[in-house]
Amino acid sequence: MNAFLEPFGYEFFRHSMLASLMVGALCGLIGVYIVLRGMSYIGHGLSHAAFGGAVVGFTLNLNFYVGAGVMGLVAALLINQVTKGGKIKSDAAIGIVTTAFFALGVAIISHARKFTKSFDAALFGNILGVTNDDLLVIAVVTIITMGMVFFMYKPLLFSTFDPDAANVFGIKTGWVQLAFSIILTLAVIGSMNVVGVTMIAATLIMPAVTARMMTDSFSRMLIYSMIIGAITGVGGMYLSYTFNVASGATIVLFGASLFCLVGLIKFIQDKMLLHEHIHNHETLVHTHSHDHHQDHEHTHAELQAEAPPKKTTLT
Amino acid sequence: MTTDSQIAVSLKDVTVGYGNKVVFGHLSLEVPAGQFVGIVGPTGSGKTTLLKTILGTSPVFAGEVRLFGQSVERLAPGTLGYVPQLESVDWSFPVTVEQVILMGLYTEARLWPWPSREQRQRVHDLADRLGIHDVLHHHIVNISGGQRQRAFLARALISNPKLLVLDEPTAGVDIKTQHDVMHLLGDLSANGITILLTTHDLNAVASHLPWVMCFNKGLVAQGPPRDIFTPAILNQTYGGDMVIIEYHGHYLIANAAPLHLHNH
Q1: Which of A98, A204, A235, B159 has the greatest number of CB atoms lying within 10 Å of its CB?
Q2: Does the domain made of A2-267 have the CATH classification 3.40.50.620?
Q3: Residues A117-164: tens digit of each pLDDT
Q4: What's the domain range around B33?
């Protein structure tokens, strides 16, 4: 037990655990909307654009979050604009806009050659990289995001499910999309230093997809995804310390393991339900005892009407 | 003389399209309040675009669209009810029937994400009326085609709209459900709701609707089905021969192509 608690004696570890808890819950929450909108790779793209922005910002002596934030937001708004006409789908728009912004960052790095700042933490996530400023940024972003998702629950849900109808019913879908782009960008930038640019897409997608396997209710999916995200963040960060591996990688691998575990449980559960269903029907036929002298057949509906099978629920 | 509020839908010299492509141009039409209208026409004729124009979701290049004397943007929330094509719905989305119906109340001023007791009661009462009360807590993929249609109809009706617009409500459902939906819409029309729907089912229009618009990149003809469903107008609308049979006061419309093949 002491060995388990030992890392909590270090301040940097407590910071990292707190950061990963918030980032996990934050990404889990936002991820639900991303997955259901069919734009799973938006997180991947935006984090690359934000990375380009961070590099540009560094050359202009700006704060990491200012450069990343401005570029990330511009990229998110551009993606919205490009997809508006309907001719270019969101996956293509993400590919064009965010790669161009990332390329800008790479071009600046390669041109400047001598860079005193290391961007390893932003690229791969770093357990040692979580500063007080990072914690503050993540906490503010988490609170803003949760507040917006809470108070915009209805328009966000409707415009995610059926944007055309939402518009007709009086939801200002353009504003909802803009608000969503802002909180998504904030979430991506807030998470970058913990999970890293290369791993952020998985942190956004995995908890949501795992939660989707567990429920058919939207509100429950939001809650489950947040909890799974938080567990993934904390578990992954602990493993990162234990095995001395980049935090982004361990968080993603831990999330993937949870996804596989839930998938396996769901698979076994479905098999058992199917078996139970078949077994019930077999019993139905065997217990249907009467004189078969008459030449007739029983339809499935007749058998069900005589003895309905046990009620089963899939969720 | 009809006042603005007695005209549910008014299009004046409207031209609509996407990008640089015009779908239909210089269209003018009026639908009186309380009318039950079926819009028919071949695939690609612009029926859905016409509905979207009325709903305010298609870009209008020129002309004026007014609903109950006002532009769509100025209508009070809940005035419009809309049932989309069921084919366009994402059935894997994690929502229950109750959550779908509640979406129709999302523009009502309420800060909290969860519905009020009164809103929930309204959903239950409407679901009861439409015969879907038993499936309120089912996921939308786990209900029948008829129940799905009723769930989306309930979402459109929950705010007591003055104008109900339905995009192919009889597509993809069995014949019994088609009749049930049409009867239900007939009852709603009798209660004073203006209803506009598009459909490919000419026989359903002939037997259930008092007014029909034949549309093909423009209004070909409009009037009661018995006046409009003539071989000449249907040929002009669809570009093919149709056979119209009158049977005990009902009209049956069929494609004449098989008869031509038989004669050959």
Answers
A1: A204
A2: no
A3: 556 666 666 666 678 888 898 999 999 999 999 999 999 999 999 998
A4: 1-75+163-223
